[in-house]
């Protein structure tokens, strides 16, 4: 995990194999996790009425699912976990074939399959503390990244300055500070005769 709940922003700087530096600012969703890999992901939704034949861009590494499957649509006693479909399917390199149960012709279900496969690109994925995807990018491997955690105390339009007193900082109005600096500069010029 990167950053803490005390931080207000995270600046993620990353570079793919093309050498071009990219960045993404994440605000208000901290801490966060950054995952770098070459695993592609695909989701397939199935109502159980037809077989699945999927060809991934690379070798399949994992299939998981959520939902239900019924061998006989109107009979709840024939309901099985969706893992039944995976257990009775064939995975061959980048091919997945799930023919379900050929004994019954009225299979039904409400299933979501998550397929992971080896991709020919690198991915950077940023997830919140609950695992929800908040940012993703892909590009040529290799991939390097850096996370900079930022803690801002002052609202927009105010400049933060260090202070010896509690809480260790103060917030100055940026426009007011700029006007004061201009006034001091003009006063110095008039005193120096310039």
- Radius of gyration in whole Å, from Cα? 28 Å
Beta fraction of the residues? over 45%
Helical amount: 10-25%
Q: What is the count of helical runs?
A: 2
Number of strands: 13
Query: Helix/strand-derived class?
Result: mainly beta
Mean pLDDT, to the nearest integer, reads: 86
**Low-confidence spans:** none
Overall structural domain count: 2
Give the overall silhouette: elongated
Along the chain, the helix and strand elements come as EEEEEEHEEEEEEEH
Q: Roughly how many Å apart are the termini? A: 56 Å
Largest sheet: 5 strands, antiparallel
Task: List the quaternary state of the chains.
Answer: single chain
Q: What this model shows, in words?
A:
There is one protein chain. The chain is mainly β and 194 residues long. The chain has helices at residues 83-87, 174-192; strands at residues 9-15, 21-27, 32-46, 52-55, 60-70, 79-81, 90-92, 95-98, 108-128, 133-139, 144-150, 158-162, 169-173. Strands 3, 5, 6, 9 and 10 form a five-stranded antiparallel β-sheet that branches. Strands 2-1-11 form a three-stranded antiparallel β-sheet, with no helix packed on it.
Task: Write a concise keyword list for the protein shown above.
194 residues; 2 domains
């Amino acid at each position: 995990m990167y950053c803490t709940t005390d931080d207000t922003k995270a600046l993620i700087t990353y570079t793919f194999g093309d050498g071009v530096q990219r960045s993404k600012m994440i605000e208000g969703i901290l801490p966060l996790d950054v995952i770098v890999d070459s695993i592609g992901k695909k989701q397939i939704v199935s109502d159980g009425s037809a077989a699945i034949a999927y060809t991934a861009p690379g070798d399949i590494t994992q299939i998981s699912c959520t939902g239900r499957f019924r061998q006989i649509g109107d009979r709840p006693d024939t309901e099985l976990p969706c893992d039944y479909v995976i257990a009775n399917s064939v995975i061959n390199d980048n091919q997945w074939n799930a023919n379900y149960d050929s004994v019954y012709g009225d299979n039904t279900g409400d299933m979501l399959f998550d397929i992971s496969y080896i991709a020919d690109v690198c991915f950077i994925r940023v997830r919140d503390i609950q695992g929800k995807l908040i940012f993703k990018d892909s590009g040529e491997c290799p991939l390097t990244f850096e996370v900079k955690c930022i803690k801002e105390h002052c609202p927009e339009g105010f400049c933060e300055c260090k202070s010896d007193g509690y809480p260790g900082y103060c917030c100055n109005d940026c426009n007011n500070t700029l006007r004061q600096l201009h006034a001091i500069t003009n006063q110095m010029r008039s005193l120096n005769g310039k």
